[in-house]
Design brief:
Order of helices and strands of chain B: EEEEHHHEEEE
Distance between the termini of chain A: 47 Å
Shape of chain A: globular
Structural class of chain A: alpha+beta
Strand content of chain A: 15-25%
Radius of gyration of chain A: 17 Å
Number of helices of chain A: 5
Helix content of chain A: 40-55%
Oligomer: heterodimer
Largest sheet of chain B: 4 strands, antiparallel
Order of helices and strands of chain A: EHHEEHEHH
Mean pLDDT of chain B: 97
Number of helices of chain B: 3
Strand content of chain B: 35-45%
Strand order of the largest sheet of chain A: 2-3-4
Shape of chain B: globular
Mean pLDDT of chain A: 92
Strand order of the largest sheet of chain B: 3-4-5-6
Helix content of chain B: 10-25%
Low-confidence stretches of chain A: 168-172
Structural class of chain B: alpha+beta
């Protein structure tokens, strides 16, 4: 028996010239920390479902990536997130979209996964559901990062949307 | 966008994805990350997949399920399935981004058609915590 694990922090057109050695080192350190935590779970006999929830929760908590803290800003300056999780053993799944104020959207998706009544919840209703499970709620300023705010100002100037990894590229 | 895929010691697979979406998004725009079969999919019969990139294209191409289907019905290996979807189908649609995927034998694919993808991987056979950003 073996275990295997992979993670990502997003893809895009960011060029090597657009990422400083310091930023690259920060990203490497953050990704290593995520791998370490999820690998520990698997090596101790934890399930794949637990491992991916641990990994994505850690990625959401890191301000370097576009999820949870460090998420990009919507047109009106709010933070609207989405997440999903799926078990290969049971084909059970949980997903949430248009969710605000929940610190870790993947943990809400996991609650939905575990609830046989639902697969996919969105918006205000999903927030009501999260409150039934006492999932940690935060104000918008928890998600704020200077770098996303700059991206947002740029995107608003051109009235287009940007992938979080786009250096100067714009997506309309 | 962030994501993870895993195979555990019992041979079970799982996948998870989470995102803030696109900068300056409006009108309730949603991407693929919360759509089972587009941004996230897992089946012990094939593979676990998590996607990242321009969500609109991953939605239309049902990328995560498509990769699994190439394995289940096309009897393709994980690498072939991810290559077909990421480097052929998505490129033809101008769908930029990538996927991470693991199959039930523990093979790992980190496939992307963009400049780079923040990614990491490891296994019970690998002491290293491998990290990469660009090709």
């Amino acid at each position: 028996n073996k275990f295997a694990l992979a993670i990502h922090g997003g893809a895009g057109t960011l060029l090597p010239s657009e990422i400083t050695p310091q930023k690259e080192a920060e990203i490497n350190t953050a990704l290593q920390g995520v791998l370490y935590a999820a690998k520990k779970c698997l090596s101790e006999g934890g399930s794949a479902l637990e491992a991916v929830e641990i990994a994505v929760t850690a990625l959401e908590d890191c301000p370097l990536f576009n999820a949870g803290k460090g998420a990009v800003m919507a047109h009106d300056g709010s933070y609207e997130m989405e997440a999903s999780i799926m078990s290969g053993e049971t084909l059970e799944a949980g997903a949430v979209a248009g969710i605000r104020h929940i610190k870790n959207p993947i943990q809400l998706a996991r609650k939905i996964h575990d609830d046989e009544d639902f697969v996919y919840l969105h918006g205000k209703g999903a927030l009501d559901y999260a409150r039934d499970y006492d999932l940690e709620e935060v104000e918008d300023d928890y998600f704020f990062t200077e770098s996303r705010h700059k991206q947002w100002l740029l995107a608003r100037e051109t009235n287009q949307m940007l992938v979080d990894h786009d250096g100067e590229r714009k997506f309309g | 966008t962030v994501g993870a895929v895993a195979l555990d010691l019992d041979g079970n697979l799982a996948a998870a994805t989470s995102t803030g979406g696109l900068v300056n998004k409006r009108f309730g725009r949603l991407g693929d990350s919360s759509v089972i079969g587009s941004g996230t999919y897992a089946s012990n019969d094939s593979c676990a997949v998590s996607c990242t990139g321009y969500g609109e294209f991953f939605l239309k191409a049902t990328v995560a399920r498509d990769i699994a289907a190439h394995m289940e019905f096309g009897q393709r290996k994980l690498k072939e399935a991810t290559d077909i979807v990421v480097h052929d189908k998505l490129v033809k649609m101008q769908g930029e981004g990538g996927v991470i995927a693991i199959d039930h034998q523990g093979n790992i694919e980190l496939s992307f058609n963009s400049e780079g993808m923040y990614r990491g991987w490891t296994s019970s056979d690998d002491e290293q915590l491998n990290i990469a950003i660009f090709k």
